[in-house]
Design goal:
By secondary structure, the protein is mainly beta. It contains two helices and seven strands.
Amino acid sequence: MSKQSQLGNNIENGETMIEDFPCTLQVKNAVNGKLYVSNEAIYFHGFYSFDTTINSKDTKIKMFFSDLRAVVKYRHPKIVDPNSLFMKSDIADVEYVFNNFEDGRRDACYDIII
C-alpha cells in the first residue's frame, strides 16, 4: 500500500509525500503510528495503542509547515527512548512529542522538516 493511500483523503492535490517514519505520539498514553512528511505538511496516523481506552486508528494529525512555530530535537527525561521531536503549532497553540523513531531515524526526520 502506498503512502498516499494510507493517508486517504488527507492529502491535498499537488502534494508529494517525501518520507514516512514509524514512531510514537506521546499523548495521555503512547499511540504507535507513522509520521508522514510531504512537501507541504506533516501527518501522523496512529494505528496501535497499548491503552484499550484509546481508539488509536482515529488518531490523525495534520500540521502545515506554515503553521509550525517550533520543531526541536528533544530529550524527554521520563520516556524510555529520550530521542524525541517536539513540535509546536500556531493553530490553537498545540504541542506534540514524537519518539521511538524506528532505527534511530529521528535526525533524518528532523532534517527533512527543517
